[in-house]
Amino acid sequence: MVRKKGSLILCGAFLFVAWNALLLLYLWGRPPIGRLGEGVGAEPGGKEEWGVDRGKGVPVNLAAEVIRLAEEVEIQLETQKELLKQIESHRAVWARQKDVGKRETEDTKEVKQEVVHQPLKPPLSRKDSEDERDQTQVKNTQKPVYTVASDAKLEQHQAIDIKEDIGEGNKLPTSVASPEVVIPILVIACDRVTVKRSLERLIQYRPSPALYPIIVTQDCGHAETARVIASYGDQVTHISQPDLSDIRVRPEHRKFQGYYKIARHYHWALNQVFNTFSQSTVVIVEDDLEVAPDFFEYFRALYPILRADPSLWCASAWNDNGRDALVDPSKAGLLYRTDFFPGLGWMLLKEMWDELEPKWPSAFWDDWMRQPEQRKDRSCIRPEISRTITFGRKGVSLGQFFDQYLRYIKLNTEFVPFTKQDLSYLLKEKYDENFIKEIYSAPLVKFEDLQQGGSLRGPGPYRVQYSTRDSFKVFARNLGVMDDLKSGVPRTGYRGIVNFLYRGRRVFLAPQEGWTQYNVSWS
């Protein structure tokens, strides 16, 4: 940073000297004013005197020429004065940055020495006098628009660090003295003023603004929605997607323009989180999601699991079959692995974004995520009871799933202390062994037995077996779970198995034992 500022000052000084040299050459090589435009001067008293312009007979006003020349000199002097002021201001900024850097280096050494000799204290968020610069808005460029840029950064390996990230046109002071990783919440917004409901719950349940900075990224340029977001002040960071233009699509895809814009927005926003804000992870929610009281606790506990197991690629707060009648209210802390990408409140690591970003699709990003080429046999974590619900019927899907499924999803209300639990059972080796044993040791029953229930004893679990795509869809519809498949994977499915409650009994809708892979043609 010091080297960069020094270079700017040397460049400014060089420009100042060069400007004066050019001005001197300009005035020196200027034709004498007695015969302007002819390339030859006129000496007083000679045959060609100052009084007449040869060939035209137009009187030349000596006083006017002198005044004009003086005005030009004055303008040049004012320009030089401004240049000097800029050089002086850069010099002052350089001095301040050098001093701040020196102080931060000393502070970092002191913090690290304290860590060696005493236990860690709760995280403290520190702001310096330069936070006011973060109020700058940048419009109609390919850089983000920041109305507030208060964020916290922590190194991936949980080392204590105090650092300032300086981007072009904006500055993001970061300061957290804690071994805990920062988990930003990225809110995807467009033109729904009801984003207020989502933000209210996020702020209400957020245990620490420093550890969970909320970044609201807005597309669409909707002024009323922007005012709602701005009303939260420094409680959130508001950035705006700069490219609001329509996207050229095939004629038959014109009705899907909204899906193309959403994919573009996601791509831009995730690049901001990982590349501009330099975060190691993020939790993505949309502006029509309401979160549960233990939403932050849930993702805090799953972060190390996601890092430890390469067979996992996301953690989601959503259960696609999370309707009230299909979940066990007494098992709020129960978590599962799923091969189906759920979305609707999900955690992504930077390493995974580095893999996905170069091939990010132009539209339908969520279904693209569910393709085998992206999933690569990896799984997500999902809860028994959802930690998010959607209240937004308005959207590009025109409410096609909202009225039929989404409005009935149950939101968890019981706070579960996940960070105090041992979640290692979710790691693939442990999970698969126990899961397969539990599924295929459950009694195999017919669908009619479940409907009548007279011959069944106890709450289960029971297993219903399907063998074809059609048989799966028939059983799913009759049992009340979602029957669609994406790239052959059923919603909430793990190794082809869908786990839910039916009339108070635990049911596994499962393929035959010995299942090996999904059939993509079932989509």
Automatic annotation (TrEMBL):
Entry cofactors: Mn(2+)
Keywords: Cytoplasm, Disulfide bond, Glycosyltransferase, Golgi apparatus, Manganese, Membrane, Metal-binding, Signal-anchor, Transferase, Transmembrane, Transmembrane helix
Cofactor note (record): The cofactor is mostly bound to the substrate.
EC identifiers of the protein: 2.4.1.101
Compositional bias segments (type: Basic and acidic residues): 96-115, 125-136
GO biological process: heart contraction; neuron projection morphogenesis; protein N-linked glycosylation; regulation of sarcomere organization; swimming behavior; thigmotaxis
Classification via InterPro entries: Glyco_trans_13, Glycosyltransferase_13, Nucleotide-diphossugar_trans
UniProt-recorded Gene Ontology molecular function terms: alpha-1,3-mannosylglycoprotein 2-beta-N-acetylglucosaminyltransferase activity; manganese ion binding
Membrane topology: Single-pass type II membrane protein
SUPFAM superfamilies linked to this entry: Nucleotide-diphospho-sugar transferases (SSF53448)
Signal peptide interval: none
Region Disordered, annotated ranges: 96-141
Pathway annotation from the record: Protein modification; protein glycosylation
Main location group: cytoplasm
Compartment(s) where it occurs, according to its Swiss-Prot or TrEMBL record: Cytoplasm, Perinuclear region; Golgi apparatus membrane
UniProt similarity note: Belongs to the glycosyltransferase 13 family.
Official protein name in the record: Alpha-1,3-mannosyl-glycoprotein 2-beta-N-acetylglucosaminyltransferase
Native species: Cyclopterus lumpus (Lumpsucker)
Primary gene name: mgat1b
